[in-house]
Design goal:
Length: 345
């Protein structure tokens, strides 16, 4: 798969708590990207409240799509297809984006392209911001590559030998990496969302203060994070029982260092074993500074990591993945449903 035709894709993403729309040209050059976050609303509940999320998507979807078109100085007639996240995610949230995309596709007579949210995360490494337009676009990720997907609901290693091709080598047996950050933050009394809270607390902590367990898995490319979370819980309970202060910053730093090192060691070993030329990191946890530094400091492999803005949920990544699907002839029927549990491969 080497030659791709020119196309402009408008994409919608509404799988969780961000309502997003974006337009991308030829799979890489971002013309606009709008994200309406509901984070402040859900922070009150300490996590995403599904019914509140879907109703918020209903309120935001039309203004967000309008803004994406106007930022790009385009109308619907100027795009070649409408891409939309079909899953995985919260059913009630996905439905809002999918129905909006169907309406736009029907109204404007454009093809509809349903996209897997996890595939979208992977394609965030293909997204280039408009400033790149003046110069040449930076080189795209090269196959074969080893993709580490670390989001709120998923942690898996996939070997990609070409576009849209995934061989799953392993995955988490229990908590996803992001979920471990979120649950551990809650144990430590840190606010939602847990990943950024742990990162912030860890800045003032000693990563060597605690030795948390690194889980051994029967299959070499699987992960397990529930043991670390339980170890943190035990340390917290012990201190509460002894009525002594919980060293939140040291615990956050030690937890983060353990998770990052586990991800790094396995990903590098898998990349060597399967002959990957490059590594790619995707999903919300790829926004983590310690994780980015650890991967960028190793010199064995080129590492593709999205810009911060495209690590967490956005529509630019859906537009990019949608482009590669569209130019290879993929089309969705108008009666497709959402797929809340859709795996990547
Ligand atoms: O990809 P994403 O935005 O949504 C899903 O598709 O799941 O990922 C959200 C996850 C949450 O668990 C959040 O705590 C985590 O990504 N996250 C982080 C950071 N920013 C977001 N984890 C660690 N460090 C961060 N800076
Ligand atoms: Zn996501």
């Amino acid at each position: 798969m080497t030659n791709f035709s020119a196309a402009r894709i408008l994409a919608i993403e509404s799988s969780c708590d961000e309502t997003a729309a974006a337009i991308i040209e030829n799979g890489r050059l971002l013309l606009s990207s709008v994200v309406a976050s509901q984070m402040d609303i859900h922070a009150r509940y300490g996590g995403v409240f599904p019914e509140v999320a879907s109703r918020q998507h209903v309120l935001s979807i039309t203004p967000v799509v309008r803004q994406a078109l106007s930022q790009a100085h385009l109308s619907l007639a100027d795009v070649d297809a409408i891409a939309v996240t079909r899953g995985p995610g919260l059913a009630g949230s996905l439905v809002v984006g999918l129905n909006a995309a169907k309406g736009l596709a029907l109204g404007a007579g454009k093809p509809l392209v349903g996209v897997n949210h996890l595939e979208g995360h992977i394609y965030s490494s293909w997204v280039c911001e408009p400033s790149a337009q003046e110069q040449e676009l930076p080189p795209a990720p090269q196959f074969p590559l080893l993709a580490l997907l670390v989001s709120g609901g998923h942690t898996e290693l996939n070997l990609m030998t070409d576009h849209l091709t995934y061989r799953r080598l392993g995955a988490t047996l229990d908590d996803a990496a992001g979920e471990a950050f979120d649950k551990t933050a809650r144990l430590l009394g840190l606010p939602y969302p847990g990943g950024p809270s742990i990162q912030k607390a860890a800045e003032n902590g000693n990563p060597k203060a605690f030795r948390f367990p690194r889980a051994r898995t029967e299959q070499p490319w699987d992960f397990s994070f529930s043991g670390i979370k339980t170890a943190v819980l035990r340390e917290v309970r012990q201190r509460q029982a002894d009525a002594v202060t919980v060293p939140v910053e040291d615990m956050a730093a030690s937890f983060q260092a353990t998770v990052v090192d586990t991800l790094l060691v396995k990903t590098l070993a898998a990349a060597r074993e399967f002959g990957a030329h490059e590594i790619l990191i995707a999903g919300g946890v790829s926004a983590n500074k310690a994780l980015r530094e650890a991967f960028l400091n190793q010199t064995e492999f080129k590492v593709n990591i999205p810009k911060f803005a495209y690590c967490t949920d956005n529509a630019a990544m859906i537009a990019s993945a949608g482009y590669y699907r569209f130019v290879t002839g993929f089309r969705s029927e108008m009666d497709i449903d959402v797929q809340p549990n859709w795996p990547l491969s």
